[in-house]
Amino acid sequence: MAAPLALLAGVVLALAGLNRWPAETRRLQTWLLQGSVVALGAGMDLRVLLRVGASGVGYTLAGLTATYALALGLRRLLRVEPVSALLIATGTAICGGSAIAAAAPAIGAKSHQTSVALAVVFVLNGVALLVFPMLGHQLGLSESQFGLWCALAIHDTSSVVGASMQYGGAALALATTVKLARALWILPVTAVLARVAPGERASTKRSYPWFIAAFVAAAALVTFVPGLEAPGRLVAAAAKWVLVASLFFVGLGVSKASLKEVGVRALLFGVVLWVLVAGGTLAAIVAVG
């Protein structure tokens, strides 16, 4: 319960107006989050990471296609502004805020459109941290089933790790591996989006989450340098606590203004899209067994 409690504590303090250094806490949250994800790589086997990534290519393509198709229909039904809807869909399909940050300049998104998408994803990340572990236990999911579900259905890497670590070590290892392998799709997806962008002008600027490459590098070190395996496990164990601290700072980043900025239509779009994707993913996982 440490992860959701840390997030909730941060939100309460933020909404009470007790965070006097919002810019500094946002930077600290980013450093802690990305650093903890990199450190988790020290507890991974690179050969397993590559195998999982390669075996999931077909599933990833199917998931991306289905998510964008659902998003297109929902956007028209709910009459959501196209650029914000595309950003929310991209965050849902790949890896939340990181994917939104990468896609925004590629499709010519304006700052308020990016902010709306990030706010929607942030709200749903907090919900996932609390709801997914409870649903997993109620449905009797195994650790491997739950870890896979988290990786495919929760937006941000931080919330994937935060939810799966509450379920068990095996769930955490699988969820982190699958999610980071999925995050590698940011580059090809943003390249495609830049060509079909509904924004005023697509940018050639690219934003890429460096911590994915650092995660792979950390896994490579402990995999191919035998003497680093034991220290790597200790680093990965410490990273779980650092992640909890990062979730506290994520909560501190909430503000009343950002919650108002979300808007009913965009939030409803994000919620319905997420429920459909999460429900469909769960049904497929349970069916396969």
Task: Describe the model.
49% of the residues are buried. The radius of gyration is 18 Å and the shape is globular. The protein has one domain. With 289 residues, it is mainly alpha-helical. Residues 200-206 have low confidence and may be disordered. The chain contains 15 helices and no strands.
In angstroms, what separates the terminal alpha carbons? 27 Å
Largest β-sheet summary: none
Which term fits the overall shape?
A: globular
Structural class: mainly alpha
Number of helical regions: 15
Strand content: under 5%
Domains counted in the coordinates: how many? 1
Overall mean pLDDT: 81
Radius of gyration based on Cα positions: 18 Å
In which range does the helix fraction lie? over 70%
The tally of strands reads 0
In short:
By secondary structure, the chain is mainly alpha-helical. It has helices at residues 2-15, 22-40, 46-55, 57-78, 82-93, 96-106, 111-139, 143-153, 157-164, 169-183, 186-196, 210-224, 229-252, 256-262, 264-288.
Which tags fit this structure?
15 helices, single chain, mainly alpha, 289 residues
